Amino acid sequence: MSESPMPTKVGPDPTVHSGPTLGGGAALPRAGRGLERLFRWFSTGAGVLVLVVIVAIAAFLITQAIPALRANQANFFTSTKWLPNDVAHPRFGIAALAYGTVLSAAIALVIAVPVALGIALFLSHYAPRRIATGLGFVIDLLAAVPSVIFGLWGRDYLSGPVTDLSGWLHRYLGFIPLFGSGGPYGNSILLGSIVLAIMVLPITTALCRDVFVQTPKANEEAALALGATRWEMIRTAVLPYGRPGIVAAVMLGLGRALGETIALAMTLGATFGVSIDLIQVGGNSIAANIANGFGEANATGRGALIASGLLLFAITLIVNVAARAIIFRRREFVGGQS
Amino acid sequence: MTTLSQNGSLLAGSLRRRRLPKALPPLLGVAALGVSAAGILGTGAGGWVLTVVVAAVLFVLATLIVSGAVEGGRRARDRVATIAVYGAFILALIPLGSVVATLLAKGTGRIDAEFFYHSMNNITALDSGGGAYHAIIGTLQQVGIAAVLAIPLGLAAAVYIVEYGRGRLTTVIRFFVDVMTGIPSIVAGLFVLAFWVLIVTPVFNHGRPGYSGFAAALALTVLMLPTIVRSAEEMLRLVPQALREGSYALGVPKWKTIMRVVLPTAAPGIVTGVMLSIARAAGETAPVLLVAGGTPAINFNPFSGNQESLSYFVYEQAGAASQFAPGRAWTAALTLIAIVAILTIAAKLLARRSTIGR
Amino acid sequence: MNMAKRVEAVDVTAYYGSFKAIDSITMTIEPKSVTALIGPSGCGKSTFLRSINRMHEVTPGAKVQGKLMIDAEDIYDPRVDVTAVRRAIGMVFQRPNPFPTMSIYDNVVAGLRLNGVRKKSTLDDAAESSLRAAHLWGEVSDRLKRPGGGLSGGQQQRLCIARAIAVEPQVLLMDEPCSALDPISTLAIEDLIGELKDRYTVVIVTHNMQQAARVSDRTAFFSIESTGDPGRLVEFDDTTKIFQNPGEKKTEDYITGRFG
């Protein structure tokens, strides 16, 4: 991505500022040239602001996290305790939270990715062209539902069916440690992950669909002309071509899942344990813990939450950078081909 | 060549294939559902969810066996793939339908004058009344301020990328705009907390952190900015180069060309992107929770004192220990989604009418 | 191994939505010959070609009416399996379109794999003989596992020909196979076409009349009255007759460059 120039085909005319050929700039009175410069500086500044904000996020989170980390009497990375508000012995560690974050995100992806691929294929290659746009809009609507509403729905409505499901899973599959708990059921990793899966679905679907739609017609026709069925055409032409894009889409979904706050704050059990069990009441995540714990946090507690947020920022940044790098490289690759 | 003709014989034959009658696959589906219902509902082994799941599995298996026997394995796999793809889409409709149904069932209970004209001030757990007036005020102010900040900055950044940008800096900025769309809202909230609430405001506030609606607006700005830049960038790129050149040829300076020609041409598409980002910002809860603090009382001043927002109100009421709280939470949720839906649908309709869109 | 088949079109009419692209084409294409379809842009020659292996209907809204017989079997009969038709009638496209993510080897055997051939030795043999038949073996035998996209345009097109003949089709359709290639690659493909007709029925659409004259035994001239009208078959005869003594005034005008 480093060497790739911008696709300047539709870009600016480079002669415009310097060019005496274009009378406008040169013949302009002083004030006009000043305005031109001001305009340019303002837009450049706005562009650079994006970079500044990302650096500033890291800088300020670090600044605010340091005092709490200094006061911490436990190992921040390995401890599963979260008692930063204990004035005499503040001790907190990220282990349980990070575990819950990764576990819930992973399960959410396991549920969401196959469905997202299916919907994306449905929209790109199965649904009649005329109604595909309209049906795509339905998925966009899903993306527009605020996370607090998914949280409310998950807690007030979905927890019922998920409790039934948990009991059923335990009864028939209880020998698997994931479903080992005999209860009580309710706010669990399973509930949180299902809600998370629904929230991750739209972005993953949208990106996969964009990738699938871009499959060159020529490759699809080549497969069909060899006598492939529709599914075989998808497997020979569409999926291999889209693989990097699918990976990127899944990673963006992962980034979304790792950072989701309110819905998980409302559907996880907010405990501080590390357990493989998905169905018992429990589970927590970095983001959910910040939302749940902020109200009663003292200065050290706030710092501890900010420290956990810093870690979350770092993880999501890495995931997003990796995903975007894949998409970026691909965009240039595709652009270079056509 | 001998092997080739072997292949030939392997593959050759009549072009005709036996096919399943058109009516058979739906019949298989109905049969699967019937068997499943009899086996599960009949014996009481599970509820309707399990019935549907088992029916789907039976349907797939039946298709594999019947189609495999009649039409061969390739056709059978194609049919199963089609079932799976359609099934995935239908599966996605279930949560959407359920959310909408639950919202309508539970959210209409508190649609009354008190809800929209009163706050939660002096409402105890035993009071049935109370409303979200203060929260609606907060949402409108916070999102409004965020829009006022994010729109010019976002447009300017997009103008920089498309009209002025060249070389590595632009590539880096473009890249990080994309990365920034993935920043979790809680991190944006923590950033404003760490920077504005805990460091900047105490200077003017006798050393005490200043939670405010404006701080929430700042966090929402961070979240809206990349979305606006990306959509505006895409729209600016769609503006034909000839339009710019035509303007330059008349001696119009570049900045005027951008303001008078380029931006107005791209305006419908840009408005769509802006409205979608506003809709998303209106639904954000985490930043408000961290930096606006929330309050049961009406606060018209976004620059001073705690403020509520609709999404935070939903969160608060959902966790409140009062039998009347869930009703308020659901009605607030319905109000919130109405705002978001109106913005989203309007944006989509506008996008469809856009002259230079796809 | 006489696999080449006769293609008989009877009143073939093709539509894109409500637009009629070709109208009542009736012609018989003999086995083991090269038939060229020529005519001005938009005359429907590619559409007709794509109706021979039912690729026309891949475009949304497109449909075909009439009968298209391959050795007396109508491929538009509802009982016929489209995938079997396309397997039996190979196609080479205007632009080389090897699968970009597959190696040269995987590209050639893609059709066989789709049809369930799994045995390595069978695939290896088929890959080699197809690549030899496409005059590509010598150039790629040492790098079969490299991506097909790394080849030159002409090599890619021969790879696509190898891919098409690996499944032993009965008819081979070529849609302006040289239009994206340089003259040397074009010559290589033309030579190849001359050899392919020993085993296949070859139908080739071309814009280039010299090419039609060089490679084909029979030539069909398609034309339209004016834009928006459907394409019609004007004349179909031996190539020498079409180019030296055309029966129709329109054909003569086109051949001599006075029209089109």
Automatic annotation (TrEMBL), chain A:
UniProt cross-references to InterPro entries, sorted A to Z: MetI-like, MetI-like_sf, Phosphate_PstC, Phosphate_Transport_Permease
GO biological process, one term: phosphate ion transport
Region (Disordered): 1-22
Transmembrane segments: 38-62, 92-123, 135-153, 189-208, 261-283, 303-323
GO cellular component, one term: plasma membrane
Name assigned to this protein: Phosphate transport system permease protein
Record bears the keyword Transmembrane helix: yes
Alphabetized SUPFAM superfamilies for the sequence: MetI-like
Described function: Part of the binding-protein-dependent transport system for phosphate; probably responsible for the translocation of the substrate across the membrane.
Automatic annotation (TrEMBL), chain B:
Keywords: Cell membrane, Membrane, Phosphate transport, Transmembrane, Transmembrane helix, Transport
The keyword Nucleotidyltransferase belongs to this UniProt entry's keyword annotation: no
Regions that span the bilayer: 23-42, 48-70, 82-105, 143-163, 175-199, 211-229, 261-282, 329-351
InterPro entries attached to this UniProt entry: MetI-like, MetI-like_sf, Phosphate_PstA, Phosphate_transprt_permease
Membrane topology type: Multi-pass membrane protein
GO cellular component terms, semicolon-separated: plasma membrane
Gene3D superfamilies reported for this sequence: MetI-like
GO biological process: phosphate ion transmembrane transport
The keyword Ligase belongs to this UniProt entry's keyword annotation: no
SUPFAM superfamilies: MetI-like (SSF161098)
GO molecular function: phosphate transmembrane transporter activity
Annotated localization: Cell membrane
Stretches assigned to the ABC transmembrane type-1 domain: 136-351
Family to which this protein belongs: Belongs to the binding-protein-dependent transport system permease family. CysTW subfamily.
Protein name: Phosphate transport system permease protein PstA
Main localization of the protein described in the UniProt heading: membrane
Function: Part of the binding-protein-dependent transport system for phosphate; probably responsible for the translocation of the substrate across the membrane.
UniProtKB/TrEMBL annotation, chain C:
Pfam families membership: ABC_tran
SMART domains according to UniProt: AAA
Residues annotated as domain ABC transporter: 7-249
GO biological process: phosphate ion transmembrane transport
UniProt keyword annotations, A-Z: ATP-binding, Nucleotide-binding, Translocase, Transport
Keyword Translocase applies: yes
Taxonomic superkingdom: Bacteria
GO MF: ATP binding; ATP hydrolysis activity; phosphate transmembrane transporter activity
InterPro entries xrefs: AAA+_ATPase (IPR003593), ABC_transporter-like_ATP-bd (IPR003439), ABC_transporter-like_CS (IPR017871), P-loop_NTPase (IPR027417), PstB-like (IPR005670)
GO cellular component: membrane
Name assigned to this protein: Phosphate import ATP-binding protein PstB
Organism expressing this protein natively: Actinocatenispora comari
